[in-house]
């Protein structure tokens, strides 16, 4: 199975390689840098081109303006040549020659000027690529060139006038115009100078602008160069890393692929071997998804590989059973799990498997998958069950047979000697079964036995055993009866009665109605050194006694047990009858303070039965609690006590007395208890402040929260709460603290020997101290002697109850008793903390 491990490990290692996300990041970075570098290089090439172009254009523009400038300078000298013949004529007087010279000079000047104008027109046409300033300068230049032309015309006209004066011999007039001509010439030169200045200005402006844009481009170029440098360095650094990364990844990937190829090859080989295995082999991941499913799994579970792979093993095989999760948890803890598993296949067949599951961990020790090898043991199991059925079960009824019953009895014997509880055996024999067999035939006899078996099973708890010993003899084994033998006898008797009742109902035997009765023998045992055989013999003996007593009855092996069970049964019947016939009365026992004054009474129940005489509560209260009769009895006692309270309230001697009433645990825990108390108070009109309920510690064991809630409700009505028999139960400071109590009642067992037993004395004193700490009052019960009272007074207990003062008395005698004594003037002391 290593192949599963290698294969999946290899598969997982590639995608989960920790370098993968990093290398992707490197790659992205690399491509980003490279792209950015290309962009920056293209930009810088473009910029360079722009700069060079700008230089080039600047140089060309300047060259042309320099030409322009020299051309306007030439115009200056040409203008002088035009002007010179006008002056020369005064010296030479050769008008014609000078006139020709001037025309020639004017032609050359005009040619030059026309050429300069043309150049200017061309420039104006291209000036759009220059700034507005330069365009304005150039347009102004055009006007200024026009002014030169005009100044030249004026100067030439003056010269022509001078030539005409000379021709006409008017040298004086010619001399007079000479000054005018010189002025016109000066104007011409000034216009030419303006043109040259303008050209110079344009030239310098152009240069300035070109320089500015070149500088701008250069700055951008520098910035790009710096950026490019940074990018190139970064690309070099990261590029190196990326290259190394990619190289190592490539090597790694190659390694993985090799492992993968190899492990896939192995997996294929091993899978084909595993397909030949008889056992169903299944591998599933920790998410339960099935990863491998061999041919035997297809046969065993009736599901093809295609149907199984990728599905949840828990859903597909184990039908979502929670036991699967429990098994997986234990597997994760221990690494291995093995057990028998019974499953229902898709076709409805039930199969039993011997399942071994092993946890496969990855290289880091983390659970990775579960390998499960399942052997079909359905046939073996069926055979085993059949063998068991034949060996341990009765073929006719399906009940346990004698062998299994003896085995279970041995276990009970061993268990009952270890534990405290009592066990029992009931031997059941059908009366006159032989006669049925002889008259109606064996088939009907068998039918009766089968129906008896069914009815017996309906009479017992699941933990008990019903067995057929053979013929018409059955046995019931009872486990976990009460540890107290008389109580256990009562429980066994109740089950015996149930069996008697059930088996007495008539049977339908193939159309024939038959009435059958059983005789039951009961034997109880509790850790005695007895054998199973002894116990069976005792039950057998008891059963024969039942037969001898007239059949259709039951008998105990132990006559004492028999007596207890019978007496208890009679008591219950009488108790129910007594309740119906109002045979119960209350006696009242005084509760006295340290001054000997009566502060109240405890109501104690008595049962006046015509046959039994006066029965004390110790004899019937436990049975009443067990049977639930305590609920009507307790209700009656509470109502009778409250009625008495109201009667006392009408007489001054008894008006201030309080009344303590005992409440049993079952009574208190009844959901309607508080409501019932309220009803009684409403019905009788008794003052709740004069009523005190005596609760026992045992009552506090069950449902502490609900108990406290009820106590609070009662206290809110004004009722006092006293904790009876204090010190004998599960006293604990923690629960005492949280109870809304008024009083602790020291149990009489501590008072009895308080003077002779230092432990009892210490306990009594401790209870008194405790009550002080908790702010509760305290009363001692069972005070029989003056010495006990003195001891209690000395140790701070100031309220008492006991034969020293009076036994419980019937109502009339109690009133007599009170009258004889002076009534206490205090209020109800259990609602106050007493001071020593
Ligand atoms: N749920 C109810 N329980 C009740 C009711 N009436 C009684 N009881 C319970 O029965 C217990 C026994 O009662 P009883 O037999 O009446 O005994 C009481 C006294 O007679 C007896 N006692 C009083 N003084 C002395 C004494 O000095 N010596 C002595 N040996 N016995 C004495 O003690 C019993 C009072 O005990 P307590 O209630 O603990 O104060 C009785 O304990 C109740 O639990 C009922 O109506 N409902």
From TrEMBL:
<feature type="domain" description="PAC">
    <location>
        <begin position="337"/>
        <end position="389"/>
    </location>
</feature>
<keyword id="KW-0812">Transmembrane</keyword>
<dbReference type="InterPro" id="IPR000160">
    <property type="entry name" value="GGDEF_dom"/>
</dbReference>
<dbReference type="InterPro" id="IPR001610">
    <property type="entry name" value="PAC"/>
</dbReference>
<dbReference type="Pfam" id="PF13426">
    <property type="entry name" value="PAS_9"/>
</dbReference>
<keyword id="KW-1133">Transmembrane helix</keyword>
<dbReference type="Pfam" id="PF00990">
    <property type="entry name" value="GGDEF"/>
</dbReference>
<feature type="region of interest" description="Disordered">
    <location>
        <begin position="1"/>
        <end position="21"/>
    </location>
</feature>
<dbReference type="Pfam" id="PF00563">
    <property type="entry name" value="EAL"/>
</dbReference>
<feature type="transmembrane region" description="Helical">
    <location>
        <begin position="222"/>
        <end position="239"/>
    </location>
</feature>
<keyword id="KW-0472">Membrane</keyword>
<dbReference type="InterPro" id="IPR035919">
    <property type="entry name" value="EAL_sf"/>
</dbReference>
<dbReference type="InterPro" id="IPR000700">
    <property type="entry name" value="PAS-assoc_C"/>
</dbReference>
<dbReference type="InterPro" id="IPR052155">
    <property type="entry name" value="Biofilm_reg_signaling"/>
</dbReference>
<dbReference type="InterPro" id="IPR043128">
    <property type="entry name" value="Rev_trsase/Diguanyl_cyclase"/>
</dbReference>
<dbReference type="InterPro" id="IPR029787">
    <property type="entry name" value="Nucleotide_cyclase"/>
</dbReference>
<feature type="domain" description="PAS">
    <location>
        <begin position="266"/>
        <end position="318"/>
    </location>
</feature>
<protein>
    <submittedName>
        <fullName>Bifunctional diguanylate cyclase/phosphodiesterase</fullName>
    </submittedName>
</protein>
<feature type="transmembrane region" description="Helical">
    <location>
        <begin position="29"/>
        <end position="51"/>
    </location>
</feature>
<dbReference type="InterPro" id="IPR001633">
    <property type="entry name" value="EAL_dom"/>
</dbReference>
<dbReference type="InterPro" id="IPR000014">
    <property type="entry name" value="PAS"/>
</dbReference>
<feature type="domain" description="GGDEF">
    <location>
        <begin position="421"/>
        <end position="559"/>
    </location>
</feature>
<feature type="domain" description="EAL">
    <location>
        <begin position="568"/>
        <end position="822"/>
    </location>
</feature>
<dbReference type="InterPro" id="IPR035965">
    <property type="entry name" value="PAS-like_dom_sf"/>
</dbReference>
């Amino acid at each position: 199975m290593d192949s599963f491990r290698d294969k999946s490990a290899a598969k997982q290692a590639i995608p989960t390689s920790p370098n993968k996300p990093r290398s992707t990041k490197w790659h992205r970075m690399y491509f980003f840098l490279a792209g950015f570098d290309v962009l920056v290089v293209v930009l810088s090439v473009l910029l360079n081109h722009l700069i060079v172009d700008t230089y080039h254009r600047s140089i060309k523009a300047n060259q042309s303006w320099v030409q322009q400038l020299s051309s306007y300078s030439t115009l200056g000298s040409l203008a002088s040549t035009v002007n010179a013949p006008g002056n020369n004529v005064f010296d030479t007087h050769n008008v014609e020659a000078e006139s020709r010279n001037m025309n020639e000079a004017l032609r050359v000047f005009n040619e030059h000027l026309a050429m300069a104008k043309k150049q200017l027109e061309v420039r104006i046409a291209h000036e759009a690529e220059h700034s507005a300033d330069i365009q304005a300068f150039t347009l102004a230049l055009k006007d200024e060139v026009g002014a030169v032309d005009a100044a030249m015309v004026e100067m030439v006209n003056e010269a022509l006038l001078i030539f005409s004066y000379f021709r006409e011999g008017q040298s004086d007039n010619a001399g007079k115009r000479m000054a005018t001509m010189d002025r016109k010439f000066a104007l011409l030169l000034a216009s030419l100078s303006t043109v040259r200045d303008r050209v110079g200005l344009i030239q310098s402006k152009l240069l300035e602008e070109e320089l500015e844009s070149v500088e701008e481009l250069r700055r951008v170029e520098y910035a790009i160069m710096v950026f490019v440098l940074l990018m190139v360095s970064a690309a070099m650094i990261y590029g190196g890393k990326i290259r190394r990364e990619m190289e190592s990844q490539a090597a790694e990937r190659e390694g993985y692929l090799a492992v993968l190829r190899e492990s896939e090859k192995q997996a294929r080989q091993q899978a084909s071997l595993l397909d030949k295995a008889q056992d169903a082999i299944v591998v599933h991941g920790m998410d339960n998804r099935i990863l491998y499913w061999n041919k035997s799994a297809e046969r065993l579970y009736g599901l093809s590989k295609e149907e199984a792979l990728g599905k949840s093993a828990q859903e597909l095989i184990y039908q979502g059973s929670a036991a699967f999760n429990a098994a997986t948890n234990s597997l994760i803890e221990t690494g291995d799990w093995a057990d028998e598993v019974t499953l229902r296949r898709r076709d409805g067949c039930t199969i039993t498997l011997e399942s071994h599951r092993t946890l496969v961990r990855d290289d880091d020790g983390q659970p990775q998958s579960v390998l499960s090898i399942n052997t079909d043991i359905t046939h073996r199991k069926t055979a085993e069950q059949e063998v068991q059925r034949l060996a341990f079960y009765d073929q006719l009824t399906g009940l346990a047979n004698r062998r299994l019953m003896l085995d279970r009895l041995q276990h009970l014997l061993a268990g009952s000697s270890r534990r405290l509880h009592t066990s029992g055996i009931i031997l059941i024999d059908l009366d006159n079964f032989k006669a049925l067999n002889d008259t109606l035939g064996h088939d009907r006899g068998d039918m009766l036995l089968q129906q008896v078996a069914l009815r017996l099973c309906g009479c017992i708890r699941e933990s008990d055993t019903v067995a057929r010993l053979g013929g018409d003899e059955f046995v019931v084994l009872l486990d976990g009866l009460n540890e107290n033998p008389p109580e256990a006898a009562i429980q066994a008797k109740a089950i015996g009665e149930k069996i008697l009742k059930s088996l007495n109902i008539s049977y339908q035997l193939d159309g024939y109605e038959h009435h059958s009765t059983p005789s039951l023998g009961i034997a109880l045992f509790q850790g005695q050194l007895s054998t199973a055989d002894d116990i069976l013999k005792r039950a057998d003996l008891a059963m024969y006694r039942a037969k001898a007593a007239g059949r259709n009855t039951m008998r105990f092996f132990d006559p004492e047990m028999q007596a207890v069970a019978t007496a208890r049964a009679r008591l219950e019947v009488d108790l129910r009858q007594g309740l119906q016939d109002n045979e119960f009365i209350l006696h009242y026992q005084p509760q006295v303070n340290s001054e000997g004054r009566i502060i109240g009474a405890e109501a104690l129940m008595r049962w006046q039965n015509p046959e039994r005489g006066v029965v004390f509560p110790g004899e019937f209260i436990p049975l009443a609690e067990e049977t639930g009769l305590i609920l009507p009895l307790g209700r009656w006692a509470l109502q009778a006590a409250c009625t008495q309270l109201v009667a006392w309230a009408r007489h001054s001697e008894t008006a201030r007395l309080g009344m303590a009433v005992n409440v049993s645990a079952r009574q208190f825990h009844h959901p309607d208890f508080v409501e019932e108390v309220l009803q009684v108070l409403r019905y009788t009109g008794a003052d709740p402040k004069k009523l005190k309920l005596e609760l026992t510690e045992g009552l506090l064991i069950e449902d502490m929260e609900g108990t406290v809630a009820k106590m609070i409700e009662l206290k809110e009505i004004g009722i006092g709460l006293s904790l009876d028999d204090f010190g004998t139960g599960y006293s604990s400071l923690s629960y005492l603290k949280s109870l809304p109590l008024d009083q602790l009642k020291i149990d009489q067992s501590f008072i009895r020997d308080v003077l002779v037993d230092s432990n009892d004395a210490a306990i009594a004193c401790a209870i008194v101290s405790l009550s002080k700490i908790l702010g509760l009052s305290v009363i001692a019960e069972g005070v029989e002697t003056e010495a006990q009272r003195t001891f209690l007074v000395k140790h701070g207990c100031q309220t008492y109850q006991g034969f020293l003062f009076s036994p419980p008395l019937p109502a009339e005698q109690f009133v007599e008793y009170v009258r004889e004594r002076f009534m206490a003037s205090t209020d109800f002391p259990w609602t106050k903390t007493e001071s020593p």
